[in-house]
Amino acid sequence: MAAPPEVTNKNLTGKYIMNKTLSDDSDDILKLQGVSWFKRRAISMFTLTLGVKHYTDEAGIEHIDVEQTLSGGIKGTNEDRALDWEERGEIDDVFGAVIGQSKRVKAEEVEDEFLKSGWTEDALEDGLVLAVDWSDTPKSGMEWRAEMVRLYRFVLLVPHNLQTWGFEILNGERRHARHLKFTSSNKKDGPIFKHLYYDYIGPS
Fold this sequence. Notes:
Elements: E1 14-18, H1 27-32, H2 37-45, E2 48-56, E3 62-70, E4 74-75, E5 79-82, E6 88-92, E7 96-105, H3 113-116, H4 121-126, E8 128-135, H5 137-140, E9 144-151, E10 159-170, E11 173-184, E12 192-202
Parallel strand pairs: 9-10
Antiparallel strand pairs: 1-2, 1-12, 2-3, 3-4, 3-5, 6-7, 7-8, 8-10, 9-11, 10-11, 11-12
């Protein structure tokens, strides 16, 4: 289902389902992040639903809290983002100990062409959500980093995981999307680029 016009990068509150048909297969990234074959197989079989709450707290800090649920009502790891670029650690059920940062950025502030391209005009006007995640190596024993520009985690994380979030027009429909760039810490693997797409299914 297409995202309605009132759902924007400044108001992501709602429910979304990952569209596996439109999204790129991320198994190669999961493998590099040390996720076992058994877990990767389970992930590929489940449908992921995101319940998003987007708000600003009393201190004026913008938050995007994402509750993840798998098929059958199985609760996944929550992804709570404060867009203040402060480093925060967490224990992820899939990726183990990770550290992340998030902030709102203009597309021209993003260096990588893949991460800053393809967004709708409203997403560019509102600003993209930039998220960076990496393994907390002393705790996890893994090394990777991931970067995302979102318009809108089931993210793949030192290696280096960078992502941007926003909205794209795909097959004539406006959809919440994430662009993901993944690189292993020693630069041996990657960069790997992925598109992730989500169907809006209604208010949360």
